[in-house]
Amino acid sequence: MFTGIIETLAKITNITKEKANKHFEIESNFTSELKIDQSIAHNGVCLTVVAINDNKHTVTAIEETLEKTSLNDWKIGDNVNLERCLAFGGRIDGHIVQGHVDQIGICKKIEDKDGSWFFTFDYDEKEGNITVEKGSICINGVSLTVVNAKKNEFSVAIIPYTYTHTQFQYIKVGQKVNLEFDILGKYIKTYLKNQQI
Questions:
Q1: 86 pLDDT tier (thresholds 50, 70, 90)
Q2: 178: which strand partners?
Q3: Which of the residues 12, 25, 41, 59 could staple to 83 if both were Cys, CB 3.0 to 4.6 A apart?
């Protein structure tokens, strides 16, 4: 379980393909604190540390993960948001995030608001996910508040700290992002759907 509060911005240093899988080597400033088998959210995708070498750790993405997330678009030199799993007894500053991406979104528009930024994203409503005004959304692992919620589109406001300390500074119009919708909303929607049977 995660909170969507990014700990550090890391860099992809190597990518190797093995059958249908891809291994990503990630350089970060807290690698020395990691251990094999630990779960880390990489741009919101929960991946297991399989190797550690100096200041780099390696994670493996299987075919299903590559198909449902933006990981297939990752390149050497790209920056990714990292968050270690929630420690019991800690504060939840964001919202409950599982690290299980629901679908990919596309950045539609970026507006400079003279000290902050508005990012607008499209997503396929046929996947059954929804956003609500002032509800929570996780974009590339970042816990954010939804504004301008529509059927297949929403926006988020990004403050300078979030912009400079996360991968948002590198997002471009047309780029794919990983979306995890609020778990409470997903449970309620599933419950209501089952009541109509």
A1: confident
A2: 104
A3: 41
